[in-house]
Amino acid sequence: MTQIDPKDAETMLVCTFRYALGRQSYITAEAVDFIKRYKEYVSDAFLEQFCSDIAQQGEKLPDREHWLRFVTWCHGEIDRRHQPEEELPELNAGHIQVRYINATPSLVNQNPAGVRVTHLPSGLFADSTEHRSRHKNRMSAIYLLRKKLAEEGKK
User: What does the alpha-carbon distance between residue 50 and residue 70 come to, in Å, rounded to a whole number?
Assistant: First the structure.
C-alpha cells in the first residue's frame, strides 16, 4: 500500500469538505465522518476555515444542523490540540452517572446514541451527540466533563 504525504492528505480532506459544502446534499454525513476519521492530517487553520465557510453559507445549508455539529466538533478539536491531557483531572468511576439520550427524537425505533455524563459530587454534566456510536459519544462526553471540572478547579 502506498503512503500518502501528510500535506496531500490535508489537501484531500479540504477538497472533500469543499465538495460536500458545495453539493449541499446527502454527502454531508459521509464527508464529515471522513474528515473526523483523518483529523490528524488537518491543521488548526483549516479547521477554523471550515467553520468560517459554514458560517458564510448561513441559512442556505439544507443540512444546517449537521454542519453546526461539525463546527462544534472543529472548535472542540482545536481546544483538545492545545490543552495538554495531563492537566485534566481524572474521574472516579463511582462519581459519574452515564445516561443515554436520544439526539434525534424523530427517529422512533432507534436506540439513542447520545450520552450525558454527570459528575455526581459537583452536579456538572456534559452531553455528546456528535457520533453515531455510543462508545465514541461516551468518551467524548467524559473528555468534555473532565474539561469542565478543570475549568471549575481554576476558579
Answer: 9
For residue 34, list its beta bridge partners.
Answer: none
C-alpha cell at 117: 455524563
From 40, 64, 82, give the residue that closes a domain: 82
Cβ-contact 96, 119 below 8 angstroms? yes
Residues 61 and 106 in one domain: no
Is the residue at 1 inside a domain? no
Give the model confidence (pLDDT) of 10-65 as tens digits.
Answer: 888 888 888 888 876 667 788 888 888 888 888 888 888 888 888 888 777 777 77
Buried-exposed string 37-52: b where 16+ CB fall within 10 A, e elsewhere: eeeebbeeebbebbbe
* Domain interval for residue 39: 6-82
pTM: 0.54
